[in-house]
Specification:
7-stranded mixed sheet
Length: about 800
């Protein structure tokens, strides 16, 4: 029998997508969720992106997020709700209940974990600011990264901040609950959506700028990838070329091998400087072929490629149909993606219909939890995953972000590479190729791999493979994210691995899963954003689809980390290890789920709107006085609209009765943008933000991601910590997008240099003597310098 998280109880006091998705992950793994709502219900019950009348029924998007949950009408101070809290392992809240003090709740209920998900965190100078996801993206530095220099930057679509935030938050909460169940030690988790989108949406721009010596900021931070989404004879196709080999293969694909000798075009910055020339070269070829033809040709060359789908066309994709990724909702009203991971080839729990508002009000709560010691969080407590060992056979960003989270939370994570095939993300250090040991200077590698130990082993050598198997026998978790055939060719598939260690939890993170026609296709975050619809809703309305630029990597990573923790809970219940299949694309399909849900429920195909959104109007980015000064404004409800009217002095143009409703403001967005642009052009950005915030209007200046470490909120919360690296030097590095009350600092060690801990692991853990290790080094089975450099 699959237990998953069936023993856990969660009280969900949150509103919005992040808390809803965090608790959905718990519910889908078997936990009991009680959602507490005010008498009018969660606003998402009445939401539809198309504005469709739900005719008294809960909206389809709400029903997806809250399947398998109970509903109780009440407030945290009510005796009945207090009884549910006393019976819970976890409480999730989002700052919407006045007078709720999470840390006080931890003290009142010793051993309880309280997760607070808010725009900026509950502490710091920005805590409590009126905000929407749009203004959070602006403050984080993420919004400034996307766009062409001659136009306005644009936000990532599809609520991506909240989806990534909910996934990160679920991992943090489950790790804390795991410790609380074992020791009685509760925790207060202060989670910041602004911090999560800085991690997921800026690609460690601040660290790269620091590694480069912080040169003057001579140009805007925004750009677009080249190549990326390109026009075809019948639509759009998406590429990405993360490595030099992929770029060279791309030139072969477009029949321009004559460009192989052009060193400038081989570099990302070179293509950017010559982007008009480059686009003309690429599109002269892509527009002569259909999307299907290009996908077939590119896949044969192992180039990451995908059709660019919307919420309707994604349903027909052959791979998703064969794998059964899309399923009917419990009530049959719409189609939705299944849960983003499988355990031993199956989901943990069938979806159940969500409860109608207040359906369980008055139901008796279970008895209060018996907590072993029952104490509130104290500084210096052992980290939640202390004592666990993880073999990290991952590369690039998605896999390392998963294992990086496990390392930050206390696990001993051993990052496995080889000198003939280092982690591909190390090669991003090539920007510093003129410096010694440039492969140790990649911002992405340094940002994703701190707190790990580094080991090199050549698995193509029988000695290296034997040592990996010996190491697996001493691990609790094994995570890998290569294409399926790579690990299987080494004999490290699940059937063989569990013979070495029957209690091992194995997490596989293939791009497209372990079955289906796209099983062996290569894919990165950009590919996931292109194929799932996330790119379709990102970009200006009069421009092409654009990728959100990276969030699908940590999104996949946190789904995998959550699955690993579920696997450990299952192992504790059954004594056996389990295989978890975390297809990167299926996590992304969950983040893009609103498009499929909206289409199948109402027939509406969502599309990109630049900086506008269905849930706010007006919403946009407006130029202010000065060079590259922008004001982000987002009005999500009628009260905020009235605040904007007051802030502007109630001019005549805001007084039309149609503007008193959200629907009216949405219909008048062009006019509103014109007037707000005229007003903003006469304002200093920071002064305008302060003025609007004082009237309760969500507003933000556009933060440059290259200097984000100096952001007052990040600095106050200690989000960036100092890294002292033996090669790269001292730099501020982002850590985790949440604070534990029991943890003052997350970073215990910088990212390892290549093979840094070979002797420590092979000798201290596996028992090899110095002579044996010397022989392995002489034979090239281990090493500390990439071959061919």
């Amino acid at each position: 029998m699959r237990r998953g998280l069936r023993d856990l109880r969660v009280v969900d006091l949150s509103r919005g997508i992040a808390g809803a998705y965090a608790t959905k992950l718990f519910a889908d793994a078997g936990a009991e969720i009680v959602k507490v709502e005010p008498p009018e219900g969660d606003p998402l019950r009445r939401y539809s992106a198309s504005g469709a009348d739900t005719r008294g029924r809960d909206g389809a998007f709400f029903r997806f997020l809250h399947a398998s949950k109970r509903s109780v009408v009440g407030a945290p101070q009510d005796a009945a709700v207090q009884a549910w809290i006393a019976a819970a392992d976890l409480v999730v809240e989002s700052g919407d209940w006045p007078h709720l003090d999470p840390l006080a709740l931890c003290r009142e209920q010793p051993g309880l974990v309280v997760l607070s998900i808010t725009p900026f965190g509950r502490e710091g100078p920005y805590a409590g600011r009126p905000a929407t996801e749009f203004t959070v993206q602006a403050e984080s530095g993420s919004l400034a990264t996307r766009g062409l220099p001659e136009g306005a930057p644009f936000a990532a679509g599809s609520h991506i901040t909240e989806w990534v935030g909910g996934t990160y938050a679920a991992v943090a909460a489950l790790a804390a609950v795991r410790r609380a169940r074992a020791s009685g030690a509760g925790e207060q988790i202060d989670f910041s959506l602004c911090e999560v989108v800085n991690i997921a949406g800026t690609m460690y721009s601040d660290l790269f700028h620091s590694l480069a010596g912080r040169p003057p900021l001579a140009s805007p931070a925004r750009s677009v990838e080249l190549p990326s989404i390109e026009p075809t004879r019948d639509g759009w196709v998406g590429f990405n070329t993360n490595s030099r080999q992929q770029y060279q293969d791309f030139l072969l694909l477009i029949e321009r091998t004559d460009l192989l000798a052009d060193a400038e075009l081989a570099r990302v910055d070179g293509r950017w400087r010559r982007r008009d020339e480059w686009n003309a070269i690429v599109r002269a070829w892509t527009t002569r072929h259909t999307t299907a033809e290009i996908v077939e040709k590119a896949a044969l060359l192992r180039i990451p490629v995908a059709p660019v789908h919307d919420g309707a066309s994604v349903l027909a994709h052959e791979h998703f149909r064969e794998r059964g990724v899309f399923v009917k909702s419990p009530d049959g009203d719409f189609v939705q993606p299944r849960s983003p991971y499988l355990m031993d080839g199956r989901g943990l729990r069938p979806f159940e219909p969500p409860a109608r508002l207040g359906a369980h009000t008055g139901d008796p709560a279970p008895p209060p939890r018996e907590r072993r010691i029952g104490r509130a969080p104290q500084p210096g407590m052992p980290l939640p995953l202390a004592g666990l060992r993880v073999l990290d056979a991952t590369a690039w960003w998605a896999g390392p972000s998963a294992t990086g989270m496990l390392a930050a939370l206390g696990a001993d994570v051993i990052h496995l590479e080889s000198v003939s095939r280092p982690d591909g993300m190390r090669m991003a250090g090539g920007a510093f190729v003129s410096l010694p040991e440039w492969w140790e200077r990649s911002a992405l590698f340094l940002g994703a791999n701190w707190n790990k130990r580094g080991l090199t082993l050549d698995l193509a050598d029988p000695r290296g493979l034997a040592l990996v198997k010996k190491l697996l026998a001493r691990c609790d978790v094994f995570v890998e994210n290569f294409s399926p055939r790579v690990v299987e060719n080494f004999g490290l598939d699940w059937e063989n691995v569990r013979r070495e260690n029957p209690r091992l939890v194995m997490v596989r993170m293939p791009a497209f899963g372990l079955s289906g026609p796209w099983r062996n296709h290569v894919g990165f975050a950009q590919t996931m954003e292109q194929i799932t619809g996330l790119a379709w809703t990102t970009g200006h309305a009069d421009d092409q689809p654009r990728i959100p630029r990276g969030p699908c990597d940590p999104l996949a990573g946190m789904h995998a980390a959550f699955a690993a923790l579920v696997g450990l809970a299952e192992r504790e219940a059954t004594g056996r290890g389990h295989l978890f299949e975390c297809a990167m694309v299926e996590g992304a399909l969950n983040a893009a789920s609103e498009q499929v849900i909206e289409y199948t429920a109402t027939g509406h195909v969502m599309a990109r709107e630049g900086n506008r959104a269905p849930w706010a109007a007006p919403q946009g980015l407006y130029r202010c006085l000065g060079e590259e000064q922008w004001l982000a404004v987002s009005v999500a409800n009628d009260a905020q609209w009235q605040g904007l009217r007051r802030a502007l002095g109630d001019p005549e143009w805001v007084r039309h009765p149609a503007l008193d409703s959200h629907a009216g403001r949405r219909a008048s967005q062009d006019h509103l943008d014109t007037e707000l642009s005229r007003w903003a052009a006469q304002q200093e950005a920071d002064a305008a933000v302060a003025h609007l915030l004082a009237h309760g209007v969500p507003a933000a200046s556009l933060v440059d991601p290259r200097t984000a470490h100096a952001h007052p909120q990040f600095a106050a919360r200690g989000f960036y910590e100092r890294m002292d690296h033996a090669v790269a030097g001292a730099h501020p590095v982002v850590t985790l997008p949440f604070r534990f009350a029991s943890v003052s600092r997350w970073m215990r060690a910088p990212a390892p240099t290549l093979g840094q801990h070979n002797r420590e692991i092979l000798g201290g853990l596996l028992g090899l003597v110095d002579a044996e290790i010397d022989a392995l080094e002489a034979a090239g089975v281990i090493g500390t310098r990439p071959k061919g450099i």
